[in-house]
Amino acid sequence: MSNETLFYVCGGVLAVSALVVTFAGLKVKGFPGRAFPLVIIWFAVFVVGATTFAVRYSAEEQEERALELEQAGEEIEEAESTGGFENEGGALGGETEEGEEEAEEAEEGPEGEEPVGPTVDSKEDEGAAGKGGVTKGEEGSKGTEGSSSGAEASTTLQLAADPTDLAYDKSLLSASPGTVTIEFTNPSAIPHNVVIEKEGEEIAGFEPIVEGEESVSADLEAHTFYTFLCTVPGHAEAGMEGELVVK
Fold first, then answer.
1. What DSSP element (H or E) covers 38?
2. d(C-alpha 228, C-alpha 156), whole Å
3. pLDDT tens digits for 61-109?
């Protein structure tokens, strides 16, 4: 029999014995009388037994958990060595070369168009600037402000892993619709990551990290429930997941 089973057996015997002794004490006059030492020995044996098996069972649980963590670490190392966490087309955070090129093109603008700067190219512009008019640079600035004010808001959320346990410090996050960024901190030597999912479909994420910081961003819709979780094998099942509400 396992230590867990023996612990429950001893506990059950103690409970039943306590009921029997209580009933006998109420119904039998002078109980336990000469049987008092036997009653004490009986209870002492099962109390010691329950305590011993409880300690052994707890030690077995700790050993099993440590083994699970070790196996999870080995699986991560194996997945990294075989390229299991490589991003495909920027699906995990958009960190591929194509994603970087697209970001640079978006910042530079369409080819052949020079960015509108705050310089004045003609005398007319200089006169307008001297009289309190609007220069080309000011017009460009105002246009940018107008477009940003009409766009959806961006939200930055903070999330961290527990230093010693398989858990995040939050199980519920809330954000406004638009670009949502989760800044993640992992103070533990155990690898963790953050992946955003919608109805089980992965939207964005990054590779597991140890003792470091990383972030993930995604454009999320209003009035929608998303899930954030750690995709290291066994971590989400242990509790490393939560709900991201966009409203």
1. helix 36-81
2. 14
3. 888 888 888 888 788 878 777 765 444 444 444 444 555 666 566 556 5
